[in-house]
Amino acid sequence: MYLSFYGLREAPFAPTPDPKFLFQSPRHREALAQLIYGVRERKGFIVLTGEIGTGKTTLLRTLLERLDATTPVAYVHNSALGIEGLLEYILQDWGVKSTASTHAQRLFELNEFLIDQHRKGGSPVLVIDEAQNLSVETLEAVRLLSNFETTSQKLMQILLVGQPELRDKLNLPELRQLKQRIGLRCHIGPLSPEETRLYIRHRLRIAGATDAGIFTDAAIQRIAEYSQGTPRVINIVCDHCLLSGYADSKRRIDAAIVQEAVEYLEEGERREWKRRRSISLVPSQGAVWAARSGVALLVLVIVFLLAFAANALGWFAGTHP
Ligand SMILES: Nc1ncnc2c1ncn2[C@@H]1O[C@H](COP(=O)(O)OP(=O)(O)OP(=O)(O)O)[C@@H](O)[C@H]1O
Ligand SMILES: [Mg+2]
Question: What is the CA radius of gyration of the chain?
Answer without folding.
Answer: 32
